[in-house]
Amino acid sequence: IEGEKIYASKQILAVSSPVFKTMFYGDFVEKNNVEIELKDVNRKEFLELLRVIYPINRKITYTSAKFLLKLADRFQIECVLERIEMFMMDCECTNAVKLKTADEFRLSMLQEHCLSNMKTVQDVKSVEDSPYYSDLSDGMKAAILELIPTAGQ
C-alpha cells in the first residue's frame, strides 16, 4: 500500500472479509501471489482497520469511524461495520450526522435508533435544517417526514 509492505494474516483477513476470502482463495490471480497490491487505499487507515480486525479490538473513535466505515464497506467486513454502528449509536454527534452515516452505509440499526429517538417536531426540524439533510436519500427523507404527525404526541 502506497509503496510499502504491510504484513497481515491471509486467514484473519479472509475470515473477516468475503472480498479478501475471494481474493486469496478464489479463482483470482492474487490467489498464488505472496504479495497483493491494494490501490486507492490509505496506508495509515488500512493499518487502523487491521488493528480493529485483529484480536486486540482497538477502540473506535469518531475520527477513525469515518474512514473505517469506508474500508469496512469496501472489503465487506461485517464485524467492523457492526462495531462502528454500535459506536455511532452512543456517540455525541447529531442525529443528522448519524442518519447520514446510516443512510450512506445502510446501517439499519443506527437508522432505527435515530428515528425512534426523534420524538418532537423540533427533533425533526433540527435534522431538516442541518447541512447533511440534502445528502440524505429520498427514502431517508420520507422516513423522517413520516415522524412529523407523531412527533410531540
TrEMBL record:
UniProt cross-references to Gene3D superfamilies, sorted A to Z: Potassium Channel Kv1.1, Chain A
Top-level taxonomic group: Eukaryota
CDD domains in alphabetical order: BTB_POZ_ZBTB_KLHL-like
Residues in BTB domain copies: 1-62
Source organism: Pristionchus mayeri
Protein name: BTB domain-containing protein
